[in-house]
Specification:
Number of domains: 1
Strand order of the largest sheet: 2-1-5-6-7-4-3
CATH superfamily: Electron Transport, Fmn-binding Protein, Chain A
Largest sheet: 7 strands, antiparallel
Helix content: 25-40%
Order of helices and strands: HEEEEHEEHHE
CATH topology: Pnp Oxidase, Chain A
Strand content: 25-35%
Distance between the termini: 42 Å
Radius of gyration: 15 Å
Shape: globular
Number of strands: 7
Number of helices: 4
Length: about 140
């Protein structure tokens, strides 16, 4: 049985994805297109990119999802909004280098995705507390091709 939260998330994702296809960005959300590691076919999902220190990043608030596994297998992605699409190579950040990005992400997007993080982990958490959740919530830098 699907929980109310899961149903809400599925409906919200479908709406954001559809809006992105029409070029309407809900709070900066984009559509991420990745190549399936098994099928080889393109798959898309809505994401919340965040800018930090001149770079563009993705955080996986829901953890080790299909898009995360696909990006690790084939680190080439497209961010799409309407007719605009940009191609990127993805680099996963580890440890302390991911902490400031995660902090900015939580500050901007916690209202939407905070429930996916352990209770008490916020943008105001210590570096050690944030570093502790990064293995479960990967951070990726997008480098334009």
């Amino acid at each position: 049985m699907v929980s109310e939260l899961d149903l809400f998330t599925r409906i919200t994702n479908a709406i954001v994805k559809r809006l992105s296809r029409f070029g309407i960005s809900a709070f900066g959300a984009k559509e991420l297109v990745v190549t399936g590691r098994k099928s080889g076919q393109p798959h898309s999902t809505p994401v919340n990119p965040v800018r930090f220190d001149g770079g563009l990043y993705l955080v996986a608030p829901r953890g080790q999802t299909q898009w995360v596994r696909n990006v690790r297998h084939t680190p080439q992605v497209v961010l799409r909004s309407g007719r605009s699409q940009d191609s990127y190579t993805v680099q996963e950040l580890q440890g302390a280098s991911a902490v400031p990005v995660m902090r900015v992400y939580l500050k901007k997007w916690a209202w939407e995705v905070g429930r996916f993080f352990p209770e008490g982990v916020t943008a105001k958490s210590t570096d050690d507390e944030i570093a502790a959740v990064i293995p479960a919530h990967p951070v990726f830098r997008l480098v334009r091709k």
